[in-house]
Design brief:
CATH class of the largest domain in chain A: Mainly Alpha
Number of helices of chain A: 9
Shape of chain A: globular
GO biological process, one term (chains A, B): glutathione metabolic process
Oligomer: homodimer
Order of helices and strands of chain A: EHEHEEHHHHHHH
InterPro entries (chains A, B): Glutathione-S-Trfase_C-like (IPR010987), Glutathione-S-Trfase_C_sf (IPR036282), Glutathione_S-Trfase (IPR040079), Glutathione_S-Trfase_N (IPR004045), GST_C (IPR004046), GST_superfamily (IPR050213), Thioredoxin-like_sf (IPR036249)
Largest interface: A-B, 29 and 29 residues
Protein name (chains A, B): Putative S-crystallin SL11-like
Pfam families (chains A, B): GST_C_3 (PF14497), GST_N (PF02798)
Number of strands of chain A: 4
Organism (chains A, B): Stichopus japonicus (Sea cucumber)
Strand order of the largest sheet of chain A: 2-1-3-4
Strand content of chain A: 5-15%
Chain lengths: 203, 203
């Protein structure tokens, strides 16, 4: 069995989609969580001075999206055909469209929370709802994919973080397909178990 | 032969890496370029109200990065193995690390040009130089990949745009491996031909 280490802060953030995939596939891994002080000491040992970093035996993968795709491919959450893969990428990029405003939020919090709430996230939810409506209520086919993992991570944890709420407490009642999607994903036994046991961090 | 249409503004921007791949593989395609006025009229017909959009026969792919991966996979610029793919993703994300500051630049140009020039781009160039130094002067193996296309696009056109210069005129003399990379890619006959013939747009 390969030795797997995930290095990140003591936070959900950009590592959580990887943890969801490991939970779904029953992967045994070392979940290394640095405090800000600890990270300052190890920063220079990271490939680009950043986390998350994934280590599988002697392979090191930096950069969250590179890690997502690699883990998804290794553990059966990435379609093998080019068109299926493009479909998953479209879902990921629909969520990444919020990165700019979300990142600004960290620096100019008050002013931007309103913009995220009124403009950025509604547009994202509307686009994801459109994707679900065009795919019989799924993001892509019948099989779980990276698209599901990333979407749940944003809707359950991301929306809550940016609006100062508890994970999973943001209403999706205006988006019935998304609401159903989140409920179904959350009820997957391996995800339910993981959510129950994961450390309670604000990000 | 499939019918291929690339829809974007009359600009290099997020469509140019796709055009580079089409040039390299000799793809015959319709290069649809909207003025701002024309785009306002067709915006509602785009999947998410945005361009670029790629249409291949009856397949529609929105979102630049989904298009990059799809085109790279279809035309032989994406490694088939998971680790090779992760390596290409790392290069792409090293460049995407500049997206936040680059996007802000469009809104707060003067203040940010200095930050991009002094902080954001040097960090990216340093990280790309590191990747090249660890791979015998290549970004990934001996075969051209999406990593090469995205990197050339940023170093040749992106850096120039954000610093108000002509494409290809930004000095890379502090980064000898990057300088050599750009010179080699630019000298590829199909790229040289494409660069000579492409419309002269500021972005």
């Amino acid at each position: 069995m390969p030795s797997v280490r995930l290095k990140y802060f003591d936070a959900k953030g950009r590592a959580e989609p990887v943890r969801f995939m490991f939970a779904l596939d029953g992967v045994d891994y070392e979940d290394i969580r640095y405090s800000q002080e600890e990270f300052a000491k190890v920063k220079a040992t990271m490939p680009f001075g950043q986390v998350p970093v994934l280590e599988v035996d002697d392979i090191t993968v930096p950069h969250s999206k590179a890690i997502y795709t690699f883990v998804a491919a290794q553990h059966g959450f990435l379609p093998a055909d080019n068109l299926g893969r493009a479909h998953v990428d479209v879902v990921i990029e629909t969520i990444s469209d919020t990165d700019f405003d979300s990142t600004k939020w960290f620096f100019e919090q008050e002013e931007l929370m309103k913009h995220l709430k009124d403009v950025t996230f509604p547009k994202m939810k509307e686009n994801l709802e459109k994707i679900l409506s065009e795919n019989n209520g799924g993001l892509f086919g019948d099989k779980l994919s990276l698209a599901d993992v990333i979407t749940f991570s944003m809707l359950h944890d991301g929306l809550a973080m940016f609006t100062g709420k508890e994970p999973g407490s943001c209403s999706l009642s205006d988006y019935p397909l998304l609401e159903g999607f989140v409920a179904r994903f959350k009820a997957l036994p391996k995800i339910a178990t993981y959510l129950e046991k994961r450390p309670n961090t604000p990000y």
